[in-house]
Q: What sequence folds into this?
């Protein structure tokens, strides 16, 4: 069942805050994308690249294990990670081992430990996630991450690019990176929400190649490949 | 400006969780009520009284001081506190000194220290609050606690009762306690949300005297007193 999670808070090294408008999309088959734009970029560097982080992967990039009725272990290997792509200092491509606890309210508490400064310096983090109703274009809270609604995933097949787009209900998030580059010029992100007339409200439309994202998701078939301005997208998942 | 805040998480003594569906209403003039029903009461005691806590007060019961652009200090003296009323062990009627920090996302981080076990045993707590759009009957996230919309407050004048009801937009929360009692039999709580046809969806309707809450808020006047099944309610605030 597809889900859309809004991050409410991010605690790291003892400090709790939320500087981003982060949404994570997870498809029915377990493919994922998380876009984390800064709400109020501060300073030249953040204005130039107003994202805390962005990453994505397919269900082959995450190991999900049920621990008990309320806890799930998820070990992520990011297939695409903006920090690694941009060679941010201390960016790590190690797997991220996380525990997801579902509270009575339906809110999800993700906790884990990362080692950006080496194996002997663990940094604990906690992220709190509020499930959002994917069938509304407004940010309506729900008490369950699982929902019905369309779940569509396309992935780029060109060898010099990494790209994925995930549609969950009315919400669309996509990431496209040029693998011949490693600067912000090679990055593209979109976050669209479908209006009632079928048009898209563009909440994020970042990068010089945003016209290479697919924007029509009717009558596709799993396995087919479509061309969008020179980029080939394969339909990995198509549940409508 | 009236506001409605949904608690997302409650961290106390190092443990973060959310077992309740807590909404706090704050009126335009600063009167307040917080109802904290348990979502999944566990065990006989919780089933008998399925609330973590409930409290309310007027703007005379809270001192609000602006600290800086993003921080506000609020010192609460609860005019009515279910824990004190029920003589819960370690319940304290001391003022609660809190700091409210507004994050870039609009989410509010409340933090403070309480002393339920005496002055030498401080217990730190943190509550994270998501502002909700008061003009919708659905739980729609907003990025600002301040909102337009009606703000109406009535307070009981009978000397043997404490009662307050706060209307913020479509959301109504009320508390009524019999001061001649100190058991759960003396407590009444309501949380209604107005449907588009003007009727009320009763999300909480707890206690044997819920028929003593006012349910019509049209054409009242500040200062007037209305009778509801033998209880006198004075209109403290009336902004429509």
A:
């Amino acid at each position: 069942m597809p889900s859309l999670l809004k991050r409410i808070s991010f605690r790291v090294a003892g400090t709790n805050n939320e500087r981003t408008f982060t949404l994570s999309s997870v498809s029915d088959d377990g493919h994922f994308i998380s876009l984390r734009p800064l709400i109020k970029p501060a300073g030249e560097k953040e204005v130039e690249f107003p994202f805390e982080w962005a990453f994505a992967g397919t269900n082959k990039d995450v190991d999900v294990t049920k621990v008990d009725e309320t806890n799930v272990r998820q070990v992520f290997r990011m297939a695409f990670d903006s920090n690694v792509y941009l060679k941010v200092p201390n960016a790590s491509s190690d797997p991220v081992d996380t525990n997801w606890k579902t509270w009575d309210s339906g809110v999800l508490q993700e906790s884990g430990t990362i080692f950006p400064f080496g194996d002997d310096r663990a940094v604990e983090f906690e992220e709190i996630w509020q499930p959002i109703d994917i069938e509304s274009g407004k940010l309506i809270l729900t008490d369950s991450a699982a929902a019905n609604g369309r779940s569509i995933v396309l992935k780029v097949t060109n060898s010099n690019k990494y790209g994925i787009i995930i549609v969950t209900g009315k919400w669309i998030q996509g990431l496209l990176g040029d693998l011949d580059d490693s600067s912000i010029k090679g990055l593209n992100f979109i976050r669209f929400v479908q209006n009632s007339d079928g048009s898209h409200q563009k909440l994020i439309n970042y990068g010089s190649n945003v016209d290479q994202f697919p924007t029509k998701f009717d009558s596709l078939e799993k396995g087919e490949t479509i061309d969008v301005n020179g980029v080939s997208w394969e339909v990995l998942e198509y549940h409508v």
Notes: Residues 44-48 of chain B form the longest helix (5 residues). The two ends of chain B are 12 Å apart (CA to CA). The mean pLDDT of chain B is 94. The first strand of chain B starts at residue 3 and ends at 12.
